[in-house]
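Per reviewer request, we include the raw input and output of the structure prediction for the construct analysed in the revised manuscript.
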Amino acid sequence: METNRTAGTSGSAYLRKPSSHDATLTEVGPGTPMGELLRRYWHPVGLVADASETPKSVRVLGDDLVLFRDKTGRPGLVWARCCHRGTTLYYGKVEERGIRCCYHGWLFDVEGRCLEQPCEPEGGLHKDKIRQPWYPVREQYGLVFAYMGPPDKKPVLPRYECLETLADGEFIDADDTSIGSGGDAIAPCNWLQHFENVLDAFHVPILHGNFSGTQFIEVMNKMPEVKWDYTPLGVKTLSERKLDGGRTMRRITEVVLPTLRVVPNPFVGEYGRVESIGWTLPIDDTHYRIYTAGRVRQAGVFLPRGAGAPANARRWRDMSEAERRDFPGDWEAQIGQGAITAHSEENLVTSDRGIVMLRRLLRRQVEAVADGKDPVGVTFDEVAEPIVLEASNRLIDA
């Protein structure tokens, strides 16, 4: 891929070549290479509470869907467009056996079976031949997960050791406000711009420390020594920062396929294993959001702040546009790349090695699926052990 390293010998922007993005890694709609890869995994599509007797409109991987829970307690996820005449089931009514379309009253169960056609003779003599498109769902960690891929390739919904083993007083809580994006619940840019950021260790002391002031704790402002490595399920970053007294803060962050951001608490509320997992959900090519599940001791508190955390740190939603311009964070840096970043204009260097490794891994998995193989992290073993992650903050003595 060519890059616009210099626009001619003069450097004039007038001489720039047309820019382009890497469609293979960024576009997630049906039939796209990345879309087909992501459809081999389970993805969170809402909180458990979102599956209710009130239909909820959700958009995932470019698909417009409706999430609901019938009055027997079964969650369902169906194609938004009714297969009869095309109005949206968002305006439907949830009943004992499923969801009823507002237009002509067709009733569908949570697996899309047409149960009633009230305008037809005898309630629909051929209703058994009709199926509203649907996706299977499961509830886990306070989230509703959906599998949107080939039915004969449906894997087991993974479990994670860090969310399975709880200490006294801990419980699992879930969040849909995109913890980790640094901004609003739905970000107006491509999912990969956030996913890559998880491996970008060097932006932390620059963006979150020296440029915008201390946004986490002082130790995170130190320039780390960094190494990257592949894991069985993704890529990890090992960052080490030298502390007073000769000790070292060792921090491991991970990206895990398909979209997991495994980031230990940047406020370092306590040292040890990671407390939460975030799923970077692609809504479509130009929007994403993050669903989070974590071990907590108080509902709604995912990032307990350490003693060195700034006491007066402003929340993004409480800042003015001028303040966001003067004190940017992850949100500004990532959406500032554009709806889909122009990869042809990048000039990657040694500090971007983690990003390069992730792109290579994703490309290999795209190729594996295209060749009829299963991507990494997919298992069909119903008794598979929970996945153990390495992400943590640790103090290492001299």
